[in-house]
């Protein structure tokens, strides 16, 4: 991967950005994701919803995300691979091998940054889940992203869980599309104001 590839920890998500995703677009995507995460965490903590992931998806749709047509390629050997390769295999099946490769680069880069890894693991432990989100601009004003969401057993979420073999209780990987222009026009300023006090703690650029 080139130095132009970017990655960031946003709450319990590791986001990866292809070179064509510029700074403004990255900030819009990160802001929308963090807003949806925090809204979901609030209702889950209050016991108001049974399925946090479904509520999270609803928040994303409200902010301008739409499910694209995922390429759910059947892979009979997926479960027999290592956990890391299985993750990347699902991402590749949803959107193509290039999405898997940029995610691989981000996972390797995350492992080299203890502050970022600590934040990622702390938030993942709190929610007993984590996300991998490779993002790519496919046409002006739109970002295509694989939303990989994995739920884990709390006892298996120790330091370095992303790099070890583990048992997953639920895994989802789907291709979604973000209308960044619409988000900026309708929600951008309002969402940024609501996140002013938490951005420093929740967002870490790699």
Describe the model.
This protein has 206 residues and is an alpha+beta fold. It has eight helices and seven strands, in the order ββααβαααβββαααβ. The protein has helices at residues 23-45, 52-63, 83-95, 97-110, 114-127, 180-186, 188-194, 199-202, and strands at residues 6-10, 13-17, 65-67, 129-139, 142-152, 168-179, 203-205. Strands 3-6-5-4-2-1-7 form a seven-stranded mixed sheet, with helices on both faces. A hairpin with a 2-residue loop joins strand 1 and strand 2. Helix 1 (23-45) runs antiparallel to helix 2 (52-63) and helix 3 (83-95) packs antiparallel against helix 4 (97-110). The longest helix is centred in the N-terminal third of the chain and has 23 residues, at 23-45. It is globular. The relative contact order is 0.21. Mean pLDDT is 87; it is low at 69-80.
Order of helices and strands: EEHHEHHHEEEHHHE
Number of strands: 7
Tally of separate helices: 8
Quickly give the structural class.
Answer: alpha+beta
Global Rg: 16 Å
Average pLDDT works out at 87
As a percent range, the share of strand residues is: 15-25%
Structure summarized in a few sentences:
The protein has 206 residues and is an alpha+beta fold. The chain has 8 helices and 7 strands; from the N terminus they run ββααβαααβββαααβ. Helix content is 46%, strand content 24%.
List the helices and strands and how they pair.
Layout: E1 6-10, E2 13-17, H1 23-45, H2 52-63, E3 65-67, H3 83-95, H4 97-110, H5 114-127, E4 129-139, E5 142-152, E6 168-179, H6 180-186, H7 188-194, H8 199-202, E7 203-205
Helix pairs in contact: 1-2, 1-7, 3-4
């Amino acid at each position: 991967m080139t130095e132009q590839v970017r990655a960031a920890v946003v709450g319990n998500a590791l986001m990866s950005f292809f070179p064509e995703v510029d700074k403004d677009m990255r900030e819009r995507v990160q802001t929308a994701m963090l807003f949806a995460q925090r809204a979901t965490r609030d209702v889950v903590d209050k016991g108001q919803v049974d399925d946090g992931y479904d509520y999270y998806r609803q928040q994303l749709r409200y902010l301008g995300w739409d499910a694209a047509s995922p390429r759910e390629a059947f892979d009979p050997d997926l479960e027999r691979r290592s956990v890391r390769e299985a993750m990347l295999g699902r991402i590749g099946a949803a959107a193509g091998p290039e999405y898997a490769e940029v995610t691989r680069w981000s996972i390797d880069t995350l492992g080299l940054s203890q502050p970022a890894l600590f934040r990622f693991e702390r938030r993942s432990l709190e929610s007993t889940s984590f996300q991998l989100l490779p993002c790519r601009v496919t046409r002006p004003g739109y970002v295509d992203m694989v939303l990989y969401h994995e739920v884990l057993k709390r006892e298996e979420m120790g330091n370095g869980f992303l790099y070890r073999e583990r048992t997953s209780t639920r895994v989802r990987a789907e291709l979604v599309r973000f209308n960044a222009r619409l988000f900026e026009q309708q929600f951008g300023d309002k969402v940024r104001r609501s996140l002013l006090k938490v951005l420093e703690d929740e967002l870490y650029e790699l």
